[in-house]
């Protein structure tokens, strides 16, 4: 039980990182990116290929966001900027298309095997050896926290951060006051992809990679954003950890084959619960 | 119905009945095409007419498939042993058993998904816009994952549906039998929806799409209509699933029954390609999509799904109005719309 809780919290920090990227896009660009999970997995593969080339995969945390940043910019320039002003449904469908495209490309290019980058960092034992924690997990949680803190400070202090917050409040007014919203959008998409890259690199050393496991990450981050609300970082971190703990317990109770199913069902329950709570005041999720 | 329309319907009916003799080699393909038309039409009840973009209608398709095969087998043989034997010919249906089971299975494969839709409808249909889309996406995938964990229906390996009984005719007869069932299902779905869209029901669905709050303020119980619409979709989709399961002969949870990445997306894509929110759009879209898919799939050997992803992006980004929308813009008078030239000139584009 203690093992599951601690695992869950460490896992949850990574979820929160991905969810923060999701919240950024959703809040500022009003786009729901179904391909979020695929960006994570792609970032993971960058780290994995560094590992196969003989470099320690932890350096993937530096390289993979850079690669992913430019990939994000490319995606934005080619596809995303055409759906940004349309109905949300079109952005969902377009990114769903990107997600299928990316899955299949990864399947062809990287093979359909489950891969993991060995970090060889050893294991820490706690509580008289009843809990075993790979150091890689602790490290990844620490890196995740650090990145989140840096990002929050950046959003608060920098000029781009201020532009982003202004655009989120009112894109039209920001445009009138001289904010280049197109640039803001493209940089958000890039930052989000970079965040996914970092998370993916951390996942590649602590968990496993496979071309088809992207969608669960999308759904997890979506769920975290719904529960926590847009732009509320402490809540995002907390609900990320909560989700991680839930998953470890679901794994423990129902068995591993129902783990992904439990995540998707939890999504449905969260949404329906929110809907019933709001409908008492005759409101609905917006 | 004008005289012109009658000719079109008659032509389609004749073509549909004669198709297995005209193109004997493509019988199975054309049967799949009619099923895809059903998929697109039923999706359009939510996505087009009601404005609720569902990604999870595949749920009913899969349930129908499992229910039909399960009933067919379970009526005569123990289901668990059938799936455990993995399609070995331990149990053989006699022709009477086969058709009895098939008939009851098809009826139940319409009813059970309808009941499921009614049960979950109240919770799920209260969500709007993107929340509904993501929620249904989750439902569809969760169903596949859970079905993959249940031993009784074969878990991840899947199960076989009962084979065609041996001593009543060749496989030729089998494909003809299924062809006409598919065509009949398509015709029934189309005619039912055509009728339904002309009634108050269709008007209410459109009112919900245009402005749900206002529709509610006008005194319409929108929730009832939304659930009814979903049940209609679920029934026809379930029957389509039952037919598909029998035609393919093999049911697998993630790739065939709850295939969110293929049929689940196809139905959305076909409806958008044809033009959502129209009666003919999904039909045209499904036929065009199927012909394109079958015609060009072989060129992308191994890269089919990459092409599919690219196709989704292209259709959504560059062609969101669909074929019917394009036709409507091109020939508005054919759709009973009048164009005021001076009004168009007077319009100022707002940015």
Write the layout of secondary structure elements.
The complex is a heterodimer of chains A (286) and B (351).
Chain A (H helix, E strand, L loop, with lengths): L1 H28 L6 H17 L7 H24 L4 H23 L12 E4 L4 E4 H23 L1 H11 L1 H6 L4 H26 L7 H15 L4 H22 L4 H21 L7
Antiparallel strand pairs in A: 1-2
Helix pairs in contact in A: 1-5, 1-8, 1-9, 1-10, 2-3, 2-4, 2-8, 2-9, 3-8, 5-6, 5-8, 6-8, 9-10, 9-11
Chain B lengths: L2 H20 L4 H24 L7 H17 L4 H7 L9 H30 L4 H19 L11 E2 L10 H28 L1 H11 L1 H6 L4 H27 L1 E2 L1 H5 L5 H12 L5 H17 L7 H15 L3 H9 L10 H6 L5
Helix pairs in contact in B: 2-7, 2-8, 2-10, 2-12, 2-13, 3-5, 3-10, 5-10, 7-10, 8-10, 12-13, 12-15
Pick out its properties:
heterodimer; A: mainly alpha; ABC transporter involved in vitamin B12 uptake, BtuC; two-stranded antiparallel sheet; 76% helix; globular; B: 351 residues; mainly alpha
Give your account of this protein's structure.
The complex is a heterodimer of chains A (286) and B (351). Chain A has helices spanning 2-29, 36-52, 60-83, 88-110, 135-157, 159-169, 171-176, 181-206, 214-228, 233-254, 259-279, and strands at residues 123-126, 131-134. Chain A has 286 residues and is mainly α. The longest helix of chain A has 28 residues, at 2-29. Chain B has helices at residues 3-22, 27-50, 58-74, 79-85, 95-124, 129-147, 171-198, 200-210, 212-217, 222-248, 253-257, 263-274, 280-296, 304-318, 322-330, 341-346, and strands at residues 159-160, 250-251. Chain B has one domain. Chain B has 16 helices and two strands. Chain B is mainly α and 351 residues long. Chain B has a two-stranded antiparallel ribbon with strand order 1-2. Chain B starts with a helix and ends in a 5-residue tail after the last helix. The mean pLDDT of chain B is 81. Classes of the chains: A mainly alpha (286), B mainly alpha (351). Chain A binds chain B through residues 32, 79, 82-83, 86, 88-90, 92-94, 96-105, 108, 215, 219, 222, 226, 255, 257-258, 260-261, 264-265, 267-268, 271-272, 275-276, 279, 284-286, and chain B through 53, 55, 123-124, 126-131, 133-135, 137-139, 141-142, 145-146, 148-149, 155-156, 261, 265, 268, 272, 302-303, 305-306, 308-313, 316-318, 320.
């Amino acid at each position: 039980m203690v093992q599951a809780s601690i695992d869950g919290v460490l896992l949850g920090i990574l979820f929160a990182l991905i969810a923060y990227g999701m919240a950024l896009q959703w809040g500022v660009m009003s786009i729901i990116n179904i391909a979020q999970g695929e960006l994570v997995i792609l970032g993971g593969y960058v780290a994995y290929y560094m590992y196969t080339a003989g470099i320690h995969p932890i350096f993937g945390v530096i390289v993979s966001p850079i690669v992913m940043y430019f990939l994000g910019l490319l995606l934005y320039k080619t596809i995303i900027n055409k759906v940004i002003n349309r109905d949300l449904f079109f952005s969902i469908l377009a990114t769903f298309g990107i997600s299928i495209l990316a899955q299949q490309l990864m399947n062809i290019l990287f093979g359909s095997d489950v891969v993991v980058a060995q970090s060889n960092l050893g294991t820490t034992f706690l509580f008289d050896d009843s809990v075993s924690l790979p150091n890689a997990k602790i490290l990844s949680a620490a890196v995740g926290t650090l990145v989140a803190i840096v990002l929050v400070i950046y959003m608060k202090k920098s000029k781009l951060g201020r532009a982003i917050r202004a655009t989120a409040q009112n894109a039209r007014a920001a445009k009138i006051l001289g904010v280049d919203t197109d640039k803001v959008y493209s940089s958000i998409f890039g930052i989000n992809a970079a965040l996914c890259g970092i998370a993916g690199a951390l996942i590649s050393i602590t968990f496993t990679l496979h071309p088809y496991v992207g969608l669960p990450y999308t759904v997890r981050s979506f769920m975290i954003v719904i529960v926590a609300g847009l732009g509320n970082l402490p809540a995002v971190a907390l609900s990320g950890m909560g989700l991680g703990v839930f998953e470890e317990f679901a794994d423990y109770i129902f068995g591993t084959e129902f783990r992904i199913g439990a995540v998707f069902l939890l999504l449905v329950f969260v949404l329906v619960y929110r809907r019933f709570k709001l409908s008492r005041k005759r409101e609905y999720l917006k | 119905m004008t005289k012109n329309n009658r000719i079109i319907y008659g032509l389609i009916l004749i073509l549909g009945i004669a198709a297995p003799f005209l193109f004997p080699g493509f019988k199975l393909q054309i049967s799949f095409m009619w099923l895809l038309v059903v998929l697109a039409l039923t999706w359009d009840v939510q996505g087009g007419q009601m404005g609720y973009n569902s990604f999870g209608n595949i749920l009913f398709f899969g349930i129908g498939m499992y229910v039909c095969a399960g009933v067919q087998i379970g009526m005569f043989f123990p289901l668990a042993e059938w799936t455990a034997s993995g399609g070995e010919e331990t149990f053989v249906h006699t022709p009477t058993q086969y058709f009895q089971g098939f008939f009851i299975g098809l009826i139940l494969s319409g009813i059970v998904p309808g009941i499921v839709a009614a049960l979950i409808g109240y919770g799920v249909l209260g969500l709007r816009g993107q929340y509904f889309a993501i929620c249904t996406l989750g439902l569809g995938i969760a169903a596949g994952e859970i079905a993959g964990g249940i031993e009784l229906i074969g878990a991840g390996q899947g199960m076989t549906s009962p084979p065609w009984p041996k001593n009543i005719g060749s496989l030729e007869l089998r494909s003809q039998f299924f062809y006409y069932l598919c065509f009949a299902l398509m015709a029934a779905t189309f005619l039912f929806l055509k009728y339904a869209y002309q009634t108050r029901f269709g008007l209410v669905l459109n009112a919900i799409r245009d402005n749900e709050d206002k529709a509610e303020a006008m005194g319409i119980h929108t929730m009832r209509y939304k659930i009814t619409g979903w049940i209609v979709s679920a029934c026809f989709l379930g029957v389509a699933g039952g037919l598909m399961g029998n035609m393919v002969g093999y049911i697998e949870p993630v790739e065939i029954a709850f295939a969110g990445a293929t049929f689940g997306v196809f139905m959305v894509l076909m409806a958008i390609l044809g033009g959502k929110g129209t009666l003919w759009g999904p039909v045209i879209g499904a036929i065009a999509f199927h012909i394109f898919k079958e015609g060009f799939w072989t060129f992308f050997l191994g890269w089919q799904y990459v092409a599919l992803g690219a196709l989704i992006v292209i259709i959504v980004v560059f062609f969101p109005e669909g074929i019917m929308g394009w036709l409507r813009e091109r020939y508005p008078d054919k759709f009973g719309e009048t164009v005021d030239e001076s009004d168009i000139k007077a319009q100022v584009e707002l940015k």
